[in-house]
Amino acid sequence: METTPEQEAVTTPEVTEAPANQDIIQMNIDETAARVRKASYWFFAIAVFSVINSFMIAKGSYFVLGLGITQFIDGMFLELTGETNLIASFIPSLLFVLFGIFAMRLKPWAFIVGGILYALDGVLFAFFEEWMAFAFHGLALFGLYKGLMAIKEHRALVQNATA
User: Which residues cross the membrane (predicted)?
Assistant: First the structure.
C-alpha cells in the first residue's frame, strides 16, 4: 500500500513529536526533582545555623538563625552547669540533617514532619518575641513548602509519563 505525500506529511510529525515530547517530559521530571533537592537544602542550612549558634552561645554570643530548641537546650545547660552541652544541642540539628537526606530522596513525609517540627520551633521564638528568628522560620517554611509542592508535581509527571 502506497502513501501519498499528503499522508506522509500528516504522519511524519507524529513520529518525530513523540521522542521530542518524551524529552520534554523527562526534562520536566528532572527539573522538578532538582527543585525538590534545592528545597531540601533548607534542612541542612537549619542544622548548620543551629550548630553555629550553639558554638556562639558557648562563647557568650547569639545568632538569630537556627533552631530555637537548641538555644533553649544551650540556655538550660548554661544556667544549670555554667556551660553548654554541645552534644545535647547537636541532636536536634542531626534530626534536621536526616530530614534533609530523606527530602533529597523525594520523601514527602520528610518535608511534612520536618516542616511541622520547624513550625513548632518557630513558636518558641514567637513566645520569646525573637521576631527576626521567627521571620527566618517563616522564610524557611516557605522554602520547605515549595519542596513539598515540587514532590507532588514530580510524582504527577512521573505517573503521566508511565501511563
Answer: 41-65, 85-102, 109-128, 134-151
